[in-house]
Amino acid sequence: MTIQESIKNGATISPGGNSKDNKTGSWRQGQRPKWNKEKCLNCGVCFHFCPEEAIIFKDGKMVGIDYTYCKGCGICAHECPRKAIEMVKED
Fold it and tell me: Where is this region: Disordered (predicted)?
């Protein structure tokens, strides 16, 4: 069975690459990533793994996290080789 066959009539599937159309920051369930600039290598691993493009890079350096789009999945923290991102309790 294909995905299309498993969806009931009237349902829609959004096209890929639409994360900026949906402000997924409201999906967070109690945790958010916290970035430690001093530990950061600016390697871009977090940027490449983030499914919501919430990691902000400018001129080859990480400058922050866009919490409007960060859904708190923790992939960035898990993949960071220097542990410069940690998941903390949401304020």
Answer: 1-33
